[in-house]
Design brief:
Length: 259
Protein backbone atom coordinates (compact mmCIF):
# COMPACT_ATOMS: atom_id res chain seq x y z
CA UNK A 1 0.00 0.00 0.00
CA UNK A 2 2.87 2.37 0.86
CA UNK A 3 4.47 1.67 -2.49
CA UNK A 4 1.18 2.45 -4.32
CA UNK A 5 0.87 5.76 -2.46
CA UNK A 6 4.48 6.63 -3.30
CA UNK A 7 3.94 5.91 -6.99
CA UNK A 8 0.76 7.98 -7.01
CA UNK A 9 2.54 10.90 -5.31
CA UNK A 10 5.42 10.70 -7.79
CA UNK A 11 2.94 10.76 -10.66
CA UNK A 12 1.34 13.90 -9.27
CA UNK A 13 4.74 15.58 -9.14
CA UNK A 14 5.15 14.91 -12.85
CA UNK A 15 1.91 16.63 -13.79
CA UNK A 16 2.38 20.00 -15.57
CA UNK A 17 1.76 23.06 -13.42
CA UNK A 18 -1.01 25.20 -14.94
CA UNK A 19 -0.41 28.82 -13.99
CA UNK A 20 -3.10 31.48 -14.14
CA UNK A 21 -2.69 33.84 -17.09
CA UNK A 22 -1.77 37.43 -16.41
CA UNK A 23 -4.61 39.94 -16.61
CA UNK A 24 -4.63 43.42 -18.13
CA UNK A 25 -7.38 46.03 -17.87
CA UNK A 26 -7.37 48.68 -20.59
CA UNK A 27 -9.54 51.80 -20.62
CA UNK A 28 -10.62 53.42 -23.88
CA UNK A 29 -10.11 50.04 -25.50
CA UNK A 30 -12.35 50.20 -28.57
CA UNK A 31 -10.13 52.27 -30.88
CA UNK A 32 -6.63 53.57 -31.51
CA UNK A 33 -3.89 52.73 -29.04
CA UNK A 34 -6.31 51.07 -26.62
CA UNK A 35 -7.64 48.66 -29.24
CA UNK A 36 -4.11 47.78 -30.31
CA UNK A 37 -3.22 47.01 -26.68
CA UNK A 38 -6.23 44.67 -26.59
CA UNK A 39 -5.14 42.87 -29.76
CA UNK A 40 -1.50 42.46 -28.75
CA UNK A 41 -2.15 41.33 -25.18
CA UNK A 42 -4.76 38.89 -26.52
CA UNK A 43 -2.15 37.46 -28.90
CA UNK A 44 0.15 36.98 -25.90
CA UNK A 45 -2.53 34.83 -24.24
CA UNK A 46 -3.42 37.29 -21.48
CA UNK A 47 -6.85 37.70 -19.94
CA UNK A 48 -7.94 41.08 -21.30
CA UNK A 49 -10.60 43.33 -19.79
CA UNK A 50 -11.40 45.94 -22.44
CA UNK A 51 -13.45 48.89 -21.21
CA UNK A 52 -15.37 51.42 -23.28
CA UNK A 53 -18.05 54.09 -22.75
CA UNK A 54 -20.61 53.04 -25.37
CA UNK A 55 -24.13 51.68 -24.79
CA UNK A 56 -23.35 48.49 -26.69
CA UNK A 57 -20.10 46.63 -27.27
CA UNK A 58 -18.30 48.41 -30.15
CA UNK A 59 -17.87 46.34 -33.31
CA UNK A 60 -14.10 46.67 -33.06
CA UNK A 61 -14.15 44.76 -29.77
CA UNK A 62 -16.76 42.28 -30.98
CA UNK A 63 -14.36 41.29 -33.76
CA UNK A 64 -11.44 40.78 -31.36
CA UNK A 65 -13.62 38.84 -28.92
CA UNK A 66 -14.74 36.52 -31.71
CA UNK A 67 -11.10 35.50 -32.22
CA UNK A 68 -9.90 35.59 -28.62
CA UNK A 69 -12.13 34.04 -25.97
CA UNK A 70 -10.08 35.52 -23.12
CA UNK A 71 -11.06 39.08 -24.09
CA UNK A 72 -14.13 40.54 -22.41
CA UNK A 73 -15.68 43.97 -22.78
CA UNK A 74 -17.08 46.12 -19.98
CA UNK A 75 -18.85 49.44 -20.23
CA UNK A 76 -17.02 51.94 -18.03
CA UNK A 77 -17.07 55.68 -18.63
CA UNK A 78 -13.97 56.89 -16.78
CA UNK A 79 -15.72 60.16 -15.87
CA UNK A 80 -18.30 58.21 -13.83
CA UNK A 81 -17.21 57.11 -10.38
CA UNK A 82 -20.32 54.93 -10.15
CA UNK A 83 -19.54 53.06 -13.38
CA UNK A 84 -15.94 52.50 -12.32
CA UNK A 85 -17.05 51.14 -8.94
CA UNK A 86 -19.67 48.93 -10.64
CA UNK A 87 -17.03 47.24 -12.80
CA UNK A 88 -14.71 46.93 -9.80
CA UNK A 89 -17.52 45.18 -7.90
CA UNK A 90 -17.80 42.62 -10.73
CA UNK A 91 -14.03 42.08 -10.57
CA UNK A 92 -13.75 41.96 -6.78
CA UNK A 93 -10.98 39.60 -5.79
CA UNK A 94 -9.67 39.23 -9.34
CA UNK A 95 -5.99 40.19 -9.69
CA UNK A 96 -5.11 42.76 -12.37
CA UNK A 97 -1.42 42.55 -13.25
CA UNK A 98 -1.33 45.58 -15.52
CA UNK A 99 -3.84 48.44 -15.43
CA UNK A 100 -3.54 50.75 -18.45
CA UNK A 101 -5.14 54.18 -18.22
CA UNK A 102 -5.48 54.80 -21.94
CA UNK A 103 -8.84 56.61 -22.23
CA UNK A 104 -8.21 60.20 -23.17
CA UNK A 105 -9.62 63.31 -24.78
CA UNK A 106 -7.43 65.02 -27.41
CA UNK A 107 -9.55 67.54 -29.29
CA UNK A 108 -12.86 69.37 -29.25
CA UNK A 109 -15.44 66.83 -30.48
CA UNK A 110 -17.56 69.67 -31.89
CA UNK A 111 -14.97 72.16 -33.10
CA UNK A 112 -11.51 72.82 -34.46
CA UNK A 113 -8.17 73.96 -33.11
CA UNK A 114 -9.43 77.43 -32.20
CA UNK A 115 -11.29 76.16 -29.15
CA UNK A 116 -7.93 75.36 -27.52
CA UNK A 117 -6.05 78.53 -28.55
CA UNK A 118 -5.76 81.57 -26.30
CA UNK A 119 -8.05 84.30 -27.61
CA UNK A 120 -10.69 81.88 -28.89
CA UNK A 121 -10.73 79.43 -25.99
CA UNK A 122 -13.83 77.35 -25.32
CA UNK A 123 -13.80 77.28 -21.53
CA UNK A 124 -16.45 74.59 -21.18
CA UNK A 125 -13.89 72.16 -22.62
CA UNK A 126 -11.57 72.61 -19.66
CA UNK A 127 -13.69 70.49 -17.34
CA UNK A 128 -14.13 67.78 -20.01
CA UNK A 129 -10.37 67.41 -20.50
CA UNK A 130 -9.64 67.34 -16.78
CA UNK A 131 -12.48 64.89 -16.12
CA UNK A 132 -11.25 62.36 -18.69
CA UNK A 133 -7.49 62.82 -18.78
CA UNK A 134 -6.78 63.48 -15.10
CA UNK A 135 -9.65 62.71 -12.74
CA UNK A 136 -10.69 59.60 -14.69
CA UNK A 137 -7.21 58.10 -14.63
CA UNK A 138 -6.83 58.77 -10.90
CA UNK A 139 -10.27 57.32 -10.08
CA UNK A 140 -9.58 54.16 -12.08
CA UNK A 141 -6.22 53.70 -10.36
CA UNK A 142 -7.70 54.28 -6.90
CA UNK A 143 -10.76 52.06 -7.32
CA UNK A 144 -8.81 49.15 -8.81
CA UNK A 145 -5.78 49.37 -6.51
CA UNK A 146 -6.86 46.28 -4.50
CA UNK A 147 -6.95 44.25 -7.73
CA UNK A 148 -3.52 45.49 -8.77
CA UNK A 149 -2.02 44.90 -5.32
CA UNK A 150 -3.35 41.32 -5.39
CA UNK A 151 -1.56 40.53 -8.67
CA UNK A 152 1.91 39.24 -9.48
CA UNK A 153 3.12 42.17 -11.59
CA UNK A 154 1.41 45.08 -9.78
CA UNK A 155 1.67 47.74 -12.50
CA UNK A 156 -0.36 50.87 -13.19
CA UNK A 157 0.40 52.57 -16.50
CA UNK A 158 -1.00 55.89 -17.69
CA UNK A 159 -0.67 56.94 -21.32
CA UNK A 160 0.54 60.53 -21.26
CA UNK A 161 2.30 62.76 -23.78
CA UNK A 162 5.34 64.99 -24.00
CA UNK A 163 2.77 67.65 -24.91
CA UNK A 164 2.39 67.87 -21.12
CA UNK A 165 6.10 68.47 -20.58
CA UNK A 166 7.05 71.89 -19.22
CA UNK A 167 10.65 71.51 -20.45
CA UNK A 168 9.89 70.37 -24.01
CA UNK A 169 9.87 73.20 -26.63
CA UNK A 170 6.34 74.15 -27.67
CA UNK A 171 5.23 73.46 -31.22
CA UNK A 172 2.81 76.36 -31.53
CA UNK A 173 0.12 77.76 -29.26
CA UNK A 174 -2.60 75.17 -29.85
CA UNK A 175 -3.97 72.40 -27.62
CA UNK A 176 -4.12 74.36 -24.37
CA UNK A 177 -6.60 72.13 -22.52
CA UNK A 178 -5.05 68.89 -23.80
CA UNK A 179 -1.52 69.93 -22.91
CA UNK A 180 -2.52 71.29 -19.51
CA UNK A 181 -4.38 68.07 -18.70
CA UNK A 182 -1.39 65.90 -19.59
CA UNK A 183 0.88 68.04 -17.40
CA UNK A 184 -1.62 67.60 -14.57
CA UNK A 185 -1.83 63.84 -15.21
CA UNK A 186 1.96 63.56 -14.97
CA UNK A 187 2.10 65.22 -11.58
CA UNK A 188 -0.97 63.38 -10.25
CA UNK A 189 0.47 60.00 -11.21
CA UNK A 190 3.80 60.85 -9.61
CA UNK A 191 1.89 61.26 -6.35
CA UNK A 192 0.10 57.95 -6.91
CA UNK A 193 3.52 56.37 -7.51
CA UNK A 194 4.84 57.66 -4.18
CA UNK A 195 1.74 56.33 -2.42
CA UNK A 196 1.79 52.89 -4.05
CA UNK A 197 5.52 52.07 -4.20
CA UNK A 198 5.64 50.91 -0.54
CA UNK A 199 2.90 48.43 -1.48
CA UNK A 200 5.04 47.03 -4.29
CA UNK A 201 3.02 48.71 -7.06
CA UNK A 202 4.87 50.23 -10.02
CA UNK A 203 3.17 53.38 -11.34
CA UNK A 204 4.64 54.73 -14.57
CA UNK A 205 3.68 57.23 -17.29
CA UNK A 206 4.30 56.38 -20.94
CA UNK A 207 4.60 58.65 -23.98
CA UNK A 208 3.45 56.58 -26.99
CA UNK A 209 5.07 58.83 -29.58
CA UNK A 210 3.24 60.60 -32.40
CA UNK A 211 1.03 57.69 -33.34
CA UNK A 212 -0.84 57.41 -36.62
CA UNK A 213 -4.20 56.42 -35.11
CA UNK A 214 -7.53 56.55 -36.94
CA UNK A 215 -7.89 60.17 -35.84
CA UNK A 216 -4.51 61.21 -37.24
CA UNK A 217 -4.45 58.85 -40.23
CA UNK A 218 -4.74 61.68 -42.78
CA UNK A 219 -2.89 64.35 -40.80
CA UNK A 220 0.37 65.60 -42.24
CA UNK A 221 2.43 65.35 -39.06
CA UNK A 222 6.19 64.63 -39.17
CA UNK A 223 7.76 61.63 -37.41
CA UNK A 224 4.54 59.68 -37.04
CA UNK A 225 4.81 56.02 -36.09
CA UNK A 226 2.32 53.20 -36.64
CA UNK A 227 0.03 52.15 -33.80
CA UNK A 228 1.20 48.54 -33.73
CA UNK A 229 4.85 49.66 -33.60
CA UNK A 230 4.20 52.00 -30.66
CA UNK A 231 2.14 49.49 -28.70
CA UNK A 232 4.52 46.57 -29.22
CA UNK A 233 7.36 48.70 -27.85
CA UNK A 234 5.25 49.95 -24.94
CA UNK A 235 4.41 46.35 -23.99
CA UNK A 236 8.12 45.48 -23.97
CA UNK A 237 8.78 48.52 -21.81
CA UNK A 238 5.95 47.56 -19.43
CA UNK A 239 7.26 43.98 -19.21
CA UNK A 240 10.66 45.25 -18.07
CA UNK A 241 9.39 47.64 -15.38
CA UNK A 242 10.09 47.07 -11.70
CA UNK A 243 9.06 49.05 -8.64
CA UNK A 244 12.38 50.90 -8.93
CA UNK A 245 10.85 52.64 -11.97
CA UNK A 246 7.91 54.02 -9.96
CA UNK A 247 7.09 57.62 -10.91
CA UNK A 248 9.13 57.68 -14.12
CA UNK A 249 7.95 59.20 -17.40
CA UNK A 250 9.17 57.02 -20.27
CA UNK A 251 8.88 57.02 -24.04
CA UNK A 252 7.38 53.99 -25.77
CA UNK A 253 10.87 52.52 -26.26
CA UNK A 254 11.83 52.80 -22.59
CA UNK A 255 13.92 55.95 -22.94
CA UNK A 256 13.42 58.77 -20.44
CA UNK A 257 10.81 61.28 -21.59
CA UNK A 258 11.17 65.01 -20.74
CA UNK A 259 9.09 66.41 -17.90
Amino acid sequence: MKRIRSIAFAALLCLPVISQADTVLITGANSGIGLEFVKQYAEKGWDVIATHRHDGVPQSLVEVMSRHKKVRAERMDVTSHDEIKAVAAKLRGEPIDVLINNAGLYSDPEGGRESQIFGTLKYSLHDDFMAVNVRGAVMVAEVFQPNVQASKQKKIISISSTNGSVSEPLSGDHGMWYRASKAALNRAMQLVAVNQAPRGVTVVLLHPGTVRTERLRDANIPNQIETDFSVSHMIKTIDALTVKDAGRFLAYDGQEAPW
